[in-house]
Every structure is written in structure tokens, then in C-alpha cells.
Amino acid sequence: xxxxxxxxxxxxxxxxxxxxxxxxxxxxxxxxxxxxxxxxxxxxxxxxxxxxxxxxxxxxxxxxxxxxxxxxxxxxxxxxxxxxxxxxxxxxxxxxxxxxxxxxxxxxxxxxxxxxxxxxxxxxxxxxxxxxxxxxxxxxxxxxxxxxxxxxxxxxxxxxxxxxxxxxxxxxxxxxxxxxxxxxxxxxxxxxxxxxxxxxxxxxxxxxxxxxxxxxxxxxxxxxxxxxxxxxxxxxxxxxxxxxxxxxxxxxxxxxxxxxxxxxxxxxxxxxxxxxxxxxxxxxxxxxxxxxxxxxxxxxxxxxxxxxxxxxxxxxxxxxxxxxxxxxxxxxxxxxxxxxxxxxxxxxxxxxxxxxxxxxxxxxxxxxxxxxxxxxxxxxxxxxxxxxxxxxxxxxxxxxxxxxxxxxxxxxxxxxxxxxxxxxxxxxxxxxxxxxxxxxxxxxxxxxxxxxxxxxxxxxxxxxxxxxxxxx
Length: 472
Ligand code: HEM
What we know:
By secondary structure, the chain is an alpha+beta fold. It has helices at residues 30-40, 59-68, 70-73, 81-85, 98-116, 118-137, 147-163, 172-188, 191-198, 210-228, 239-250, 259-290, 292-305, 321-334, 366-370, 413-430, and strands at 43-48, 51-57, 143-144, 343-344, 349-351, 354-356, 361-365, 431-434, 459-463.
């Protein structure tokens, strides 16, 4: 039976072998986490099977762990299902150490030059928005299901950065990639992954999780080998080229850079950048349709600020406090990565007076911050006023943490924020989105996973006529 070490945070009674798995709904543990917080406070412990974990709630405790004591709390659990799927490599799950540091620095630098570099990235995003517009224009006056459209758009933007190419929305290649990635994301946070983590003896059995391993193999062959056929050394067009050039420069000795690493790395970036952004967009349009007064206020601000301009730029956000408030409120309510990505302590350490041994799983419960009472004017409702002060200016409370915090926080924050703003503004300027009359009451309850997804829904699209301005 797992036992709590001395001065470990409190938590519910444990069972032999299962630990506290019985206290958590495997389908959606968020409500259970909230109930445990009410009983045990902001820092409590759980056993995931035999493994000790601490759940950290609320802005103060999360900041202390991930920012003040980042060196102690920024490892990643190294023996989970995801690590085996990615062969313990990649950027998202790699442990906090030289390889992570080396790759993170490279990724930030390269993405800045090739992707996140302001103008080139804006061009790429606007290029993809044209395809979203085409899809919507074909559906004017009709009812449309936006799931696949937003997934493909987010996927294409990151594909442009990584592989220098986009894929038609019905392209078999990218459909297969998106399918595999989504399947793996659901598997990774589902019951089979938890059982995999808890019982090593089942690792080689033909159970549903083996699908995730096959998916990765398929993706590797498809993505990188295809790309290498057209590469010219020393003339990088995209992230993969940059990585291969860097690899040539470093040689294979003594560096954490390798072709195998590149494959997992690209998949990591593609995965991290697709489901997150697209689910946030889906949540955004769900709430904008069902709150038409907010949608209209966005449209009024957009029309006022962009008068005479053919398209929106990312810098225009400084003149659009309401739209900024809406994009941030969408991220807050979407709560897209509800438990962040699990961390792990890198040494024996302390948090809020408790002792936490090296190797403890750390679960930063971002949900608890994004709706924390006392931090928000309206913690439990969709309301852009959460980000506006009395003068109607945009303000960002410190509890806005959808990208987590500290040195391990989301590497794609800049790209994600640019995508959300440009896509939402451009679409709201051109179209009116309506909740279909016969769709019944909207169901806002998300489907739980590493990334949360809104329940599938439909939208009705109308075109907004603009006099005097040509809009691209
Ligand atoms: C709305 C969109 C997004 C949200 C809400 C989001 C959220 C997050 C969160 C919560 C983490 C975990 C941070 C931690 O461990 O403390 C993370 C990590 C990460 N994200 Fe994002 N993300 C988004 C978009 C993107 C995009 C577009 C990219 C691609 C460039 C990306 C790349 C990454 C990477 C590489 C990591 C791992 C960083 C590391 O371990 O050093 N994300 N993200």
C-alpha cells in the first residue's frame, strides 16, 4: 500500500496497487480534483497507482512551484506512457536538462526567424485564413460543422513553419496525420494510458494503447522522409531544413541533435500547435454564436478600427481592447490544457511548507487558476469584462495562465496568440455566425483530454456586406 512520506501534502486514503485511482473519474477527473481541493487545500497529494503525485492549485501555489522554484519543479515524469510513445525524446516530454535547454533555445530562435518572426508569420497565417474564408463562402446561408476546418487550418499553419508546405483540407496525407495525432492525444490522457503507467506487465499485450505506437511510426515515415526528398543543404526553407543544417554543423557526436530526435520534435511541435489552437477557436465561436451581443460588439470595434484597411495586422490589437478582451476570455473559458503538461520534481524540495521528494509527479491544475474565485470579476461565466478595467482598457490579470508559467511554459505562445487574434478578427469582420434555430440548447461541457474539445456543434454563416472597403 503506498504511504505518504513525512511532511508530504495531505490527501485521500490510498488503496493497495491502485493508490487513489479509485478517487478519480478516468473519463474526466477535473471535478474530483476540485472536490479534493476543497477537502485538502491548494496543495494535496494523490497516488496514481503506486506513484506519488502532488496536485497544485491556485495562482499563488502554481507560481511558487513553476516560477520561484522552477529548477526544482520543471522536470517531466520520465516513465509515463507518453515517454514510451515518444521514446523518451521530443521537446514536450523531455526531462529538464541540457537536451531540453539546447532544443528549446534552438526552437525559439528558429521559430522566430522562420515562423514567429512577425511579418513572415503573419503572412503565413493570412495565407491560411484565405482557405478558411473559401470554405465559409461556399457555405453562406447554410449550416456547417467547423471542427475539421479549424483543425486543418491550425495544422496547416504549423506545417508551413515546420515543413514549408500546407495541405488541402481533403488531402489524404494530412487527414491521416491529424487523425493519428488526435487519436494519440485522447489515448494519452485516457484510462488505458493510466493502466499502462501503473502496470508494466501489460506493456507488451495487444491492448488499445499499442495503436498509439503504430501511429507514431506511421507519422515518422510520412512527415520527415517525404520532406527530405526536396531538401537543399544550406538553403533552409523551414524548421526541418534548419534542424538538418544544424545537425550537419554539429555532427552526430556529443550533441543531443539527431534525425530521430528531429522526427519526434517535429511531431511534438505539430501536436502541441494543432489541437490546442483549433480547440480554442472552436470554443471561441461556440460562445460568440450563443452570445450575439458580444459578437456584435466585436464587429463594431473591428469595423471602427480597420476602416479603410484591407486586412488586420497583429499590431492592430493595441487599438482593439474589446477584441483583446474577447480572445483572452475565450482562452480562459476554453481551458484548453486543463492540467497543463505534468511536471516532476528534479530533487527533494519544499512547497508551501510541505516536503516533496525528488521524482514526484507534479500536476499544475490550470483549471483551478482560470476560474479561481477572487482572481476574476466573473470566474464562472463567459464575460470579456474579466479583461477590461473601468475605463474599458484591456488588462491581463496574473491568473491568466492558459500557457502555464515559468521556463517550461508554452513555447508556441506567440504563434498561438497571433493565430487566435488574426483568425477571429478576420472572420468576424467578414461573417456573422449564428447558432442554428433547430440546434437546441448549447452544451458547453467540454470533452476532457490533454486538450479539451467542445462537443461537436454546427454553425450558420452569413456574409457581412461592407460598403467602401475591399476586404481581403
Ligand atoms: C491556444 C494554444 C495553446 C495553448 C493553450 C498551449 C498550452 C501549453 C501548455 C499549458 C503547456 C505546458 C507548459 C508546462 O509544462 O508548464 C505547453 C507546452 C508547450 N507548447 Fe503550447 N499551447 C498552445 C499552442 C502551442 C503552439 C501553437 C505551439 C507550437 C509552436 C506550442 C508548443 C508547445 C511546446 C513545444 C511545449 C513544451 C515546452 C517545454 O516543455 O519546454 N503550443 N503549451
